[in-house]
Specification:
Methylamine Dehydrogenase, Chain H, Rossmann fold, four-stranded antiparallel sheet
Length: 726
């Protein structure tokens, strides 16, 4: 039930794919582009910053000002050059056609909810460009369209469905829409019976997370108050309550900084009031980028009356990462002293972790999430990158639920009035589906997500462990066509993330990447430290001053691949997105000779300058505060932009950004591009790809994702020399 707001959260690529038909080899045996046009010359205005007696130079500080007259012309010139280079590549057109087939012929269902005898389904249907919201009677009734962002879009701008939540009785849905991938949500409420919106809308609800009352008369929500595109955007958010049919401007503010005596917290922490069906209590959570949060509880009637006496039950030091309110019982997932998690139960009326009853002790597996159903609390488990599932009954018995294959549980969808749960489940070579789990532990594919007609018999996905310099075993997975020869010549692309304690790059259906694999490439994923594959210890081993472990783990994986002759440096590429930009950026600047190419997707490149972007101060617990000497040193260590050295033969690099990105400001990619273009002596291309009506990728359309994938794969095959004579 924890409210998550990871602002630089990794963006998983599309998991959609269909036919395994192979592109004819002759399509790949075409001459490559030999020359690259000269890069646009960026204006240089050096700014010197002194931190704790150390002075750093920044030649492209002006790019942080999006209103600078040279800013948009620079982006346009860079993107125009990138298009001149990528569009004529003989592989790109065939790749795009294949990718469009893979993504368009596969249905994607990221979220479902059962409420009031109805099933609500967020889905991108066959051939659709965007996600829509449907409702059906029961589990198998006919689908009825409720929200279609595509109908609100134009040829130059698109609208995305950011989030939604149905009321417990299924009569209403609160949902957020935003334009062009900005994630700047406008909250709407629709009546399910006729599909029409109520008159009220609420702005600045990117972190809205509506929490309905049992009678569906209203909901709690979180609202941002800082101006868009300023460093204050995510600071001092406030929790409010909206009663249906009233003016949102009059919604009472129930929590903000300085409002309630005795509850003091930092400006980066986000307040959210959480309800639980059937409980007479409400919970106040204060969260930031850390996995854990602070928790308070009060009677729901007092909260609604604005007279809550909030009782603290968890501080950040307690490392409570999830919770469930079950009537008068409060279940807590505690990591303090148990870095892989333990479940305890305490009284909601007088909560106390110290005297709580131990329900599930820590063991070798990581408890990631909890989800309350009528027949118990379901536990989402992480086993070094593989998902497991358990159920905790109210009598304390824990039951293992056997999954049909090793894969990733994207989410567990539980309802307090229903036995069993629905889960989203997929594997590297198993398409994503929504599966039902009944009270006896039996699983069945619901058919909500139709399975594509796909033959995966030609492919293999294998898991290995590389040894890092300090002896730690780093899991990684390779996907390739059967019959692949370990002769050192395979074009290979390895992606990594390693931040926030998130278990990133766990088994996700190969999808669009099958187009690259069909061209003879190996696609791989490294589960480096900083993630959550082995719990809090794994996270902390790649956090703050330990962050170098993250990119050095990636380097260790790449060295093993070369040592085992899967590939060689001239055929090897690395990739990362969002906070993964730190991982690949520092791996490249530390070991430029190890890689032929680097893909930096909306990546964080210049963290020392977090203070000027809207998603900045909220990140300090993960990376460090620049006002602190230790924080400054940690930030400098992870700063790829400041790590670039003149006269160095860097690999080919493709950097991508979206102009409306609220999570990683475009200046990170722009500054990194300009710096590399000046510094590199390899003669290899440094390209910046710009999407003008997209942000971090969260709200991008299928067509936008298809085009970015085609550009990425064409670039990789060009630089890794993956073509085979036919």
């Amino acid at each position: 039930m924890k409210i998550d707001l990871h602002r630089r959260q990794f963006l998983a690529g599309s998991a959609s794919a269909l036919s395994m038909s192979i592109l004819p080899t002759r399509l790949w045996a075409t001459a490559e582009k030999d020359t690259v046009p000269a890069a646009p010359v960026a204006r240089i205005e050096v700014v010197h910053d002194t931190y704790f007696a150390e002075t750093l130079s920044d030649p492209y500080r002006w790019m942080e000002n999006s209103k600078d007259p040279d800013w948009l012309p620079f982006l346009k010139a860079q993107n125009d050059r990138t298009r001149v280079v990528l569009d004529p590549l003989p592989r790109r057109a065939a790749l795009l056609k294949r990718i469009e087939q893979l993504s368009g012929d596969t249905v994607s269902t990221p979220r479902v909810q059962r409420a009031g005898g109805l099933t609500f389904i967020q889905q991108r249907p066959l051939g659709a460009d965007n996600f829509k919201l449907f409702v059906r009677q029961g589990a198998s009734g006919a689908d009825r369209l409720l929200v279609d962002p595509t109908a609100m879009s134009s040829t130059k701008s698109h609208v995305s469905l950011d989030w939604w939540r149905a009321s417990p009785d299924g009569k209403y849905v609160a949902y957020g829409l935003s334009k062009d991938g900005s994630e700047d949500s406008l909250l709407h409420v629709l009546a399910v019976a006729d599909g029409k919106d109520l008159p009220e809308t609420i702005a600045n609800t990117e972190a809205g997370n509506p929490q309905w009352l049992d009678d569906a008369s209203g909901f709690f929500y979180t609202q941002l108050i800082g101006a868009v595109a300023t460093p204050e955007r995510y600071l001092d958010a406030q929790a409010r309550f909206h009663k249906l049919g009233t003016d949102p401007n009059s919604d009472p503010i129930l929590m903000k900084r300085g409002l309630v005596a005795g509850i003091e917290y930092d400006k980066i922490q986000v307040p959210a009031i959480v309800t639980s069906l059937g409980s007479r209590y409400a919970i106040l959570q204060l969260t930031d980028v850390r996995p854990e949060g602070r928790g308070y509880i009060a009677p729901l009637k007092d909260v609604l009356a604005g007279q809550a006496n909030w009782i603290s039950f968890a501080g950040f030091e307690d490392e409570v990462t999830d919770l469930e309110l079950d009537g008068d019982d409060l279940y807590l997932l505690v990591n303090k002293g148990s870095p892989r998690g333990r479940i305890v139960k305490t009284s909601a009326g007088a909560p106390n972790i110290a005297t709580a009853t131990l329900m599930v002790p820590q063991n070798m597996l990581v408890i990631e999430k909890t989800a309350r159903a009528r027949d118990g609390i379901y536990l989402k488990i992480m086993d070094g990158g593989i998902s497991r599932l358990q159920r905790l009954a109210r009598d304390g018995k824990v039951t293992d639920i056997i999954l049909p294959f090793d894969g990733t549980i994207g989410a567990v969808f539980a309802e307090a009035t229903e036995d069993g749960v629905l889960i989203s489940l997929q594997g590297w070579l198993n398409p994503s589906g929504i599966w039902s789990v009944d009270s006896s532990g039996r699983l069945a594919d619901t058919g909500i997500t139709p399975k594509p007609a796909i033959d995966v018999s030609a492919y293999e996905a294998k898991r290995f462990f590389a040894t890092a310099k300090d002896g730690v075993k780093i899991p990684y997975t390779l996907i390739y066509r059967k019959g692949m020869q370990q002769n050192g010549s395979n074009p290979t692309w390895i992606s990594a993330y390693g931040s926030y304690g998130l278990a990133a790059y766990t088994p996700t259906f190969a999808g669009r990447t099958l187009a690259l694999i069909d061209a003879g490439a190996i696609v791989g994923y490294a589960n480096v430290r900083g993630g959550g594959e082995y719990g809090r210890e794994w996270h902390k081993a790649g956090q703050l001053t330990n962050k170098p472990n993250t990119w050095r783990d990636l380097i260790a994986v790449c060295e093993e691949l070369i040592g085992k002759k899967y590939t060689s440096s001239k055929h090897l590429a690395i990739g990362g997105r969002s906070a993964g930009g730190i991982t690949v950026g520092r791996a490249m600047t530390e070991r430029p000779e190890l890689f032929a190419a680097v893909i930096d997707g909306v990546g964080w490149s210049n963290p020392l300058r977090y203070i000027v972007e809207q998603d900045g101060y909220t990140e300090e617990p993960e990376w460090g505060a620049i006002s602190d000497p230790a924080g400054y040193r940690a930030l400098k260590t992870i700063d790829s932009y400041q790590s670039v050295r003149d006269g160095t033969p860097y690999p080919a690099v493709l950097l991508t950004t979206g102009v409306t990105d609220p999570r990683v400001a475009p200046f990170h990619l722009a500054k990194m591009t300009a710096r590399l273009q000046v510094a590199s002596t390899s003669g290899k291309p440094i390209l910046l790809r710009v999407d003008y009506d997209a942000g971090h990728g969260i709200g991008s359309t299928r067509a936008q994702q298809d085009r970015e994938a085609a550009d990425t794969y064409a670039f990789l095959l060009w630089q890794l020399k993956g073509a085979k004579a036919g």
